[in-house]
Amino acid sequence: MHRIFSAVIVLATIVFVCAPVFIAWAPYESTMGLVQKIFYFHLPSWAAMFVAAFVCGIASAVFLFRGRLISDRIAVASAELVVVFGLIGLVSGPLWARKAWGVWWQWDARLTMALVLWMIFIAYLLLREYGGPGSEKLAAGVAIFGMANVPFVYWSVNVWRTIHPTTNVVPTLVPGMRGPLWWSLVGFLLLYGLAMMARVRLETQRATLDRIYRDLND
Amino acid sequence: MISNGTLCWLKGDVVKVTVRRLAVLCLLLSLCIGVIETSAEEFGAQSMQSSQQDEFVPIDQLDVEDQLPAAPLLVVAYAFAWVAMFVYLWSIWRRLARVERELASLANRTSDR
After folding, report:
1. Model ipTM?
2. Angle made by CA atoms A177, A182, A184, in degrees to the nearest 5
3. What do you get for the CA distance between the two ends of chain A, in Å?
């Protein structure tokens, strides 16, 4: 476990450190110019957030229906990462929009749904923190609801007329732009894996500590 | 005295002349319309070109909104992503270290007993 953790740290650091170099080499987009390069961190952060939301939702469902404690630990770790990656996406998006669209924020379907998705996982974490005993199961239900929201956020740009580009941006990218995007995506997913391993370990150690205290009290 | 046949011939001649005049008038009208349309198109194109030329504004005279530089936005976006990830990983490491310290102290206490 320790070896895998160290290997992932090294790999994630290499990928994350090299990413700006590849992004700098990527060609300029014809209409937006330099500011379009936010895309190489913006899209991977949302992709990592969606992966985290799915992992959280599936782990919560397993916890609800099978009662496995490890699933609950995975769910809470992943929910925290949904909030972190979502925050990166929610900050980088308006910075890009300010230059490209002339506004920081637009209450259109895509942006609003993404914000609501992020807030659902904030609610999950608040419930876990302040919900008291038994809040894990209630929070698991919230996580499943959050996961169900992900496909709607993804398809919203194709279904409703929004200011945000549709999902056909990635398949139509020029080869010079694809490399940096995939590199950043791998970097973000490695970081997700790394943070997940560390966060699950923290939950496991906390559970061990609680068990020891319970045994001492008994 | 004019006979019926002569009258008919005269009427037919008048109709023929009127039709010919109308045809000439139509031809002239269509020519005029063609000329006017062509000149209007040319004028429109010229005025559009001149208005486009008039619309050109040097980059340093653009509105404040349009002069917004991209580089600071890009740098802030990347810096925020780096800092957010770093702070989060550091917070996990800190929390993990605290729990492991507590576990170690508990293990020491139980071994002392």
Report:
1. 0.89
2. 100
3. 32
B65 touches chain A (CB under 8 A): yes
pLDDT in tens, B11-65: 667 677 778 888 888 887 787 777 777 666 766 666 666 555 566 666 566 666 5
Beta bridge partners of A33: A29
**CB-CB neighbors (< 8 A) of B76 in chain A:** 95
**Nearest residue of A to residue B97 by CA position?**
A202
> How far is the C-alpha of B85 from the C-alpha of A17, rounded, in Å?
13
Longest alpha-carbon distance in chain B: 155
- Given A92, A194, A198, which is nearest B81 (Cβ)? A92
| Separation of first and last alpha carbons in chain B | 155
pLDDT one-digit tens code per residue, A23-66: 778 888 877 888 888 999 999 999 999 999 999 999 999 999 99
Q: What is the 3-state secondary structure (H, E, C) of A17-41?
A: HHHHHHHHHCCCECCCEHHHHHHHH
Within 8 A of B78 by CB-CB distance, chain A residues are: 20, 38, 41
Give every CB contact of residue B77 below 8 A, 6+ residues apart in sequence: A38, A41, A42, A91, A92, A95, A96
Return the number of other C-beta atoms located less than 10 Å from residue A15's C-beta: 19
Q: Is the separation of the CB atoms in A79 and A115 below 8 Å?
A: no
Per-residue exposure over B55-84, b if at least 16 CB sit within 10 Å of its own CB, e if not: eeeeeeeeeeeeeeebeebbeebbebbbeb
Contact A92 B106 (CB under 8 A): no
Mutate to test the interface with B, among A36, A42, A84, A189 (most CBs of B within 10 A): A84
Read off the pTM. 0.77
C-alpha dist (Å) from residue A21 to A25, A30, A150:
6, 20, 31
CA gap A61, B105 in Å, rounded: 36
Q: Is residue B76 within 8 Å of A38, Cβ to Cβ? A: no
Nearest to A142 by CA among A128, A124, A126: A124
Q: What is the residue-wise DSSP string for A129-167?
A: HHS-TTHHHHHHHHHHHHHHHHHHHHHHHHHS--SS--T
